[in-house]
Amino acid sequence: HTRNTRIHRFCPTPTPPHTRRGTAATYPGSHHIQAADIPAFQRYYAQLRAASVTSTKLKLVVMGKGEAGKTSLVRRLKELESPGAAPAALPARADRTIGIEMTTLQSTFVVHDFGGQPEYYPWHKLFLTPGALYAVVVDLADGGASPAAREATLLEQLDILHASVPGAVVIVVGTKADLVAEAGAGAGAAE
């Protein structure tokens, strides 16, 4: 074996399936010294490049506290695809999002509508990725919440997002503004 065509390396993770015949098999957690054929690695990475696909969709993640109006917002945006169609009914209070609901808007956006209850927060981290657009939804008419409480809720969502995706592009969306006006709270409730 010549030094130019073979390499020896410590391999703590599984190696591609093209390792030379007769070398030790690896599996997760195994640690073997393996001899690998450089042309085999070149073929492997060439196949990866050839099979790669460029995504033409943008990821939109809609997150916020439970019952903030995230699903209603997504449904209203979906209605823009069919102008003149009758508006869909808003979700009932008991019809909450369980985990994550995914839909497509305008054949451009893949929307991840997150359930806003705290028991789902650990699962959200699996879907928080760089390059996505994030809409953090805040309920402006949250009955007993003061402006400071709404701000704390917003900051909590931004902290969760920042922990997984520092520098994420975020749009803050205030929902239920019509209910604030109906309650006569005016702009003071939405501060």
Brief description of this entry?
The protein is α/β, with parallel strands linked by helices and 191 residues long. The protein contains five helices and seven strands; from the N terminus they run E-E-H-E-H-E-E-H-E-H-E-H.
Biggest sheet: strands, sense, closure? Answer: 5 strands, mixed
User: What order do the helices and strands follow?
Assistant: EEHEHEEHEHEH
Helix/strand/pairing class, anyone?
alpha/beta
Provide the β-strand percentage band. Answer: 15-25%
Q: Give the low-confidence spans.
A: 1-15, 18-33, 185-191
Query: What is the typical, i.e. mean, pLDDT?
Result: 76
Rg computed from alpha carbons, rounded to a whole number of angstroms: 25 Å
Number of helices: 5
The total strand number stands at 7
Overall shape: it is globular
Spatial strand arrangement across the major sheet: 4-5-3-6-7
Share of helical residues: 25-40%
In whole angstroms, how far apart are the ends?
Answer: 73 Å
Notes on the protein architecture:
The model is unreliable at 1-15, 18-33 and 185-191 (pLDDT under 50). The protein starts with 5 loop residues before the first strand and ends in a 9-residue tail after the last helix. The chain has five helices and seven strands. The protein is globular and about 70 Å long. The chain has 191 residues and is an alpha/beta fold.
